[in-house]
Every structure is written in structure tokens, then in C-alpha cells.
Amino acid sequence: IPLFVWLPDAMAGPTPVSALIHAATMVTAGVYMIARSNVLFAMAPVSGTVVAIIGGATAFVAGSIAVAQYDIKKVLAYSTISQLGFMIAAVGLGAYVAGIFHLATHAFFKALLFLGSGSVIHAMSGEQDMRRMGGIWKMIPLTYGLMWIGSLALAGVPFFAGYFSKDIILESAWAAGSDVGLYAYALGVAGAFLTAFYSWRLLYLTFHGAPRADEHVMAHVHESPKVM
Prior knowledge:
- It is a single chain.
- Helices cover about 75% and strands about 0% of the residues.
- The protein is an all-alpha fold.
- The radius of gyration is 18 Å and the shape is elongated.
């Protein structure tokens, strides 16, 4: 916050590119820089406090925006910003290992989710609006299963990767014993609930319920080829 508005617009590109941006480039740069510059932040504690405040706010606000999105890739885009907030809050509080650990786990499950969403878009003849999906889980079972795995990890369900990395961030915030630590913990917990909600919402709108696409699109729904 507030410099994330370019990201949803970047979702117009090819889905594998989205996966790369979210798994590597975008998330790594800022978090890695702060962790790498930890000596400077240790010498100026106020700067770490500012970072943690911005991180906590980002985790919550971006999660609340993701809840209201209908474009399947934009839900994941705002989700990435929310998870970035978790990482930034962690490194701002001095929990550098926790921040980098979440960076690494997030890279894997978010790349899986983006590639899975690309498979869904391919199956739906280029459709990205979740309001025009639904009722397709039996037609693309492999994509469905992989999206579940990615979503469970993103939501921090035990014992997927995201559970361990998100838990240590919240634990570090609580253990900081400061007002900023409690602030980051409270917004982090709220952000974690939002994450679970929009992950479930994405799965339900995309795969379940009555089919909302027209008959022509539904007739062409198919699992992606092995190369994808």
C-alpha cells in the first residue's frame, strides 16, 4: 500500500508470465532487499516499525479487495499483494527468516494457482470471469485437484506449506511483545481469515454450482494437454 495498483493491470498478460511475476520477481525484490539490509534496519528501529505498519495494512486491505473480485486472475493478484504484506510485516519486525520462508513457500503455491487458473481459462475458451464459470469440476478433474492443493496451502491449512510459513509470521508478531507486533498480529489473523474465504470463494465459483457459461463454451470444456 499504496503502490500496488499496477499489479491487477499486469494480469492482462499471458498466465505463465503472471505466475513468474507473482512467484519470483515482484515478491522477492522488496522482501529480499529488506532482509539483506537487516544491519541498516537494526541501526534504525523506527524504519522497521514503519515497514511493519505498512506490511500489516497491506495484508488486510489487499485481502479485503480480493474478496470482491470476479476475474479469477485478479483474485490471485490481490492475494499476492496480501501475502506480500505478511512478508513485509515479518521483516519489519525483524523476523527475517519467517519473511523469507513465506516468500519461498508462497512462490510455489502461488505459481501452482496461477498455472491452474491458466488451465481453467484455457478450458473455458478464454473466459476469466468467475460469474460465467461453475459446474466444471468433473470435466477438468486434474486442474481441480491441483487448484485445491494450491488453495489449501495459500489458506494456511495444516499441514500444507503455507501453514508453517504463515504460522511462524503470526507467532513472531505476537512474540515481539510490542504495540506494532500486536497490530501486525491482529491484521495478520484478519488477513488469514480473508485468505481462507476468497480461496474457498474462488474454488466454489469456478468449479461448483450450476454451469453459468453458455452452451457453446460448456461443450468445449476439456482438460489441458499434458504439455500444459
